[in-house]
Amino acid sequence: MSQLTFDAASAKAVEAIYMTPDVVAQRARVIDLLAPTPGERLLDVGVGPGLLALDLARLVGESGRMVGLDLAPAMVAAAADRLAGVSHAEVRIGDAADLDLPDGAFDAAVSTQVYEYVDDIPRALAELHRVLRPGGRAVILDTDWRSLVWHSSDTARMDRMLACWDDHLADPHLPAKLGPLLRGAGFEVRRTEIVPMFSPRWQPFSYAGGMVKSIRNFVRTNGEKHGLEPAEQAAWWSDQESLMAADAFFFSVNRYAFLATR
Ligand SMILES: C[S@@+](CC[C@H](N)C(=O)[O-])C[C@H]1O[C@@H](n2cnc3c(N)ncnc32)[C@H](O)[C@@H]1O
């Protein structure tokens, strides 16, 4: 396992990807599912650069409360900058698997693209359940990398690249197991939705445009463990460049959103 590290450089890269239209649409979907109302107390577990937390803080208003926490100091710094002028918002270091927060303190919580990085999911979900009030809502969204359709002229080489990329997180297939995991933690699952990240053509400013670079960089550092020599990585990249130039690029992966209540 060689998981991604969320340092200052990757915080910037994540932030750029999160401004792209697919991810902007994802945030709108998550907000719709959570349906926050003025005065509510909200928690964002794994707040990242704070884009969703800022929208949520505005929606609950000054009579509400927004708490964002994240394990990575660089992410906490980015989110704290973004939420600096919002007096009812607070950002702090924290671990999803060990929440330093009182029982029943929140009306609702979100966690997008975070649990897939967490080793002990039953423990993290038990913690989420504990800090919500009875009847409180949670929206959890993660990617299942098995849903990826990414065109390549060499499928076997693409499969080797993606086997390496699977190492960037704790569980590349978490969504398929999330329903029973949530029920096991005491939640009731109310709704589930697919949130696609879809680029049927090459578009540099897109989720796919950002991920192509992230995956290339990750494999550059970790590929040799998977027998991916630099020449094979270069051939993979050259194939992708040819497909982009020929208007034959295609990338699609699904994220899965769960609305659950305590
Ligand atoms: C891909 S980013 C998602 C950020 C944000 N939720 C969003 O959707 O914009 C994953 C985030 O999860 C955080 N993270 C990973 N493991 C964590 C844990 N055990 N507790 C809290 N945060 C964690 C990382 O530091 C990173 O900020």
Describe the structure.
With 262 residues, this protein is of the alpha/beta class. The chain has a domain at 8-144 and 169-199 and 254-261: Rossmann fold (3-Layer(aba) Sandwich), CATH 3.40.50. Helices cover 41% and strands 25% of the residues. The chain has helices at residues 8-17, 21-34, 51-60, 73-82, 121-131, 155-165, 175-184, 207-222, 230-245, and strands at 41-45, 65-70, 89-93, 106-112, 132-150, 188-199, 251-261. A seven-stranded mixed sheet has the order 3-2-1-4-5-7-6, with helices on both faces. Helix 1 packs antiparallel against helix 8 and helix 6 (155-165) crosses helix 8 (207-222). The longest helix has 16 residues, at 207-222. The protein is globular. The two termini are 33 Å apart. It binds S-adenosylmethionine. The site of S-adenosylmethionine (SAM) has 19 residues, from helix 3.
Element layout with pairings:
Elements: H1 8-17, H2 21-34, E1 41-45, H3 51-60, E2 65-70, H4 73-82, E3 89-93, E4 106-112, H5 121-131, E5 132-150, H6 155-165, H7 175-184, E6 188-199, H8 207-222, H9 230-245, E7 251-261
Parallel strand pairs: 1-2, 1-4, 2-3, 4-5
Antiparallel strand pairs: 5-7, 6-7
Helix pairs in contact: 1-8, 6-8
Sum up the structure in keywords.
alpha/beta; 262 residues; Rossmann fold; 41% helix; 9 helices; seven-stranded mixed β-sheet; globular; binds S-adenosylmethionine
CATH-defined superfamily of the domain at 8-144 and 169-199 and 254-261: Vaccinia Virus protein VP39
Task: Please estimate the helix content.
Answer: 40-55%
Q: What percent of residues are in strands? A: 15-25%
Supply the CATH class of the domain at 8-144 and 169-199 and 254-261.
Alpha Beta
Instruction: Give the SSE string.
Output: HHEHEHEEHEHHEHHE
Radius of gyration: 19 Å
Number of strands: 7
The tally of helices reads 9
Largest sheet: 7 strands, mixed
The second-level CATH architecture of the domain at 8-144 and 169-199 and 254-261 is 3-Layer(aba) Sandwich
Low-confidence parts lasting 5 or more residues at pLDDT below 50? none
Distance between the termini: 33 Å
Query: Which ligands occur here?
Result: S-adenosylmethionine
Content-based structural category: alpha/beta
Coarse shape:
globular
Could you tell me the CATH topology label of the domain at 8-144 and 169-199 and 254-261. Rossmann fold
- Strand order across the largest sheet: 3-2-1-4-5-7-6
Mean pLDDT reading: 96
